[in-house]
Write a structure and sequence with these properties.
about 170 residues, alpha+beta, three-stranded mixed β-sheet, two-stranded antiparallel ribbon, 8 helices, about 30% helix
Length: about 170
Amino acid sequence: MTHYPGLLRIAPLQGETTSSLICRIASRYGMEAKALRSCWHWRNYPPGHDGGGARADAEVLLNTPGRQLLASLCGVTEDVLARALPSWGQEDAKLSAGKSGVPAAAWRTGGAVAGPVAFGCRLCTARRTRTAVRAVRYAPRWERVCVGTGGGSWTRTPTSPWSISTCGTCRK
């Protein structure tokens, strides 16, 4: 399959999970995330909850061709992604077991890769991306302050039952 550079520039949010970025790219191109994820050869299944259903805090690890593919879909250089995505340089033993040159990916739980994750502020994410999409980023509990407005705390984590995910400042 021949891959062409992305037509749109989709910049990652600082500290965003790779899985979240892939979902935002798919949304921007008018695709389902599942359709875009088919560009990678997956080595395992997405992490799920005990009762079924996918986890929102899932993270994706990519091999070198997989990272190159993601950079081309974003329309940015790999250096930009390396600075923004905490899981960027991490690999997994399952990724090296495949054919060389084939974009491959492996699912992990976000907390096991680079620390706890939380939903970003919806209003700040919409302002930054110019679309109404959800973003998940790495943030320790004591730093869960809205980056865009500098105040308020996120009120939901990907594994919590609450549905509000705008920061206190943005709700005002």
